[in-house]
Amino acid sequence: MLQVECGFPDNLDHLVRFGPTLNVLVGFDPRYRLDSTDPPELPITEHHALIDTGAQESCIDCDVAAALDLPVVDESLVSGVHGPASVNVHLAQIQIPTLKYTIYGQFCGVHLHAGGQPHSALLGRTFLSELTMVYHGKSGSVMIQRRL
Length: 148
Prior knowledge:
148 residues, mainly beta, six-stranded mixed barrel, three-stranded antiparallel sheet, 3 helices, 10 strands, globular
């Protein structure tokens, strides 16, 4: 089993302010295959990703997607606290090296940085469906576990 701390142990204020956060790699490796035992070859720049139990799907900041030249494969209507918006849908991989886990597929490009978010990606409930998350609010600790 692999496990990683994604909270802020002994700093509840940080957990409340930023939420559970993982370091991830984002990019698109056209040679990557889901049945591969090797991870995709992605840029080595780490990005912060918020584990967002309020989001069904995972998303990538639209400016990060543009900077990485992620392929646009569709357009989609998404809804948030400010109502519906049309966004680009990008083909990409989000890799969580500490969990040896890769999410591959289509990700909506959303305006995280423009809205003041420090995160470059949101990891939604479809991501969590493969994992266990233990949230200790009083200590600020959040553990994510993955069975191999």
